[in-house]
Amino acid sequence: MSTVVDIDARGTQHCETTALGVLLRHQGLDLSEPMLFGLGSGLSFVYWDSKNMGFPFLGGRVKPFELTRSLATGLELELLVQETTSSRRAWENVAAPIDAGHPVGLQLDSYHLDYFTSKVHFGGHVVAMYGYDDHAAYLVDTDQQGGAVSTSLTSLARARAARGPMTAKHRSFTLTAPRDLPSPQDRIIPAITACADAFLNPPIANLGHRGIEKAGKLVRTWLQRTDQPQRDLPQAALLMEKAGTGGALFRNLYRDFLAECTELHDSSHLRTGLGLYTEAATLWTEVAALITKAGESGEAPFLHQAGTILGDLSRMEREAMQALSRLEA
Fold first, then answer.
1. Direct distance between the N- and C-terminal alpha carbons of the chain, in angstroms, rounded to an integer
2. What's the rounded Cα separation, in Å, for the pair 288 and 303?
3. Inter-residue contact 128 to 68 (CB < 8 Å)
4. Does pTM surpass 0.85?
5. 176, 239, 316, 326: least CB-packed within 10 angstroms?
């Protein structure tokens, strides 16, 4: 058996920030989950639909692992990423740092993990691994999944080898903080303005504020988009509120990040952004509730109301990001 000592197995709400928190606390850097999410410029929006999808997906964050890369760049952390098509090499990439006393981040398909109660394929799931024995791997996942958990080595191997949307080739990673670590406070404004710029200037209409506006138009058609609205609409709403988003499609996390920032920086632009995202978070939860009601009742007016609110949210978040883009270091 090999186990990293002094692991703070504090489960939080979102998988990637949960894993990052474990790795960074082991390096002596203890940041809140909203701060990790914000410093990684994690907020976004995507309306994702295609012919091979059973139902549209609303996403509220950047692509899997992009948050980790942005956070590492901003804090000047050494990010060592390893990928391979070999299961044997993949295990060596994980066992070696754990044997040396360092936890490891893994990207995998959560469907195969023993402790996951919701059996849905998601290849962008991230966990921290801190130990193993002859039969099991010891992981830290979100609070929702149990925090400090274990899964069989066989299930872990399947999860890491899975192929499909958002999967990576047995991706594992470690983080090392430099001795002269930049002050996280100094990285707040660059992280916010980078996030705002991406949100305000999306390359396609499915992303950012344009994506929210598009969702407001298309959500009205969702009853015609599926033969099983009682299943698909509540499931879409559940993913917005409960699937590691922290509620309100990650807007609660970003609201709390901005609230922390206002305690560190005196800025009217920050306060404007915080006020708008506080209101937006409430409205996103209302949208999810309306989508659920539409699926359960089959009544289209609930979706029309959700679409109207999404139109308001597009304008509201655009205004918030315009204010935040004016921040100066």
1. 48
2. 10
3. no
4. yes
5. 176
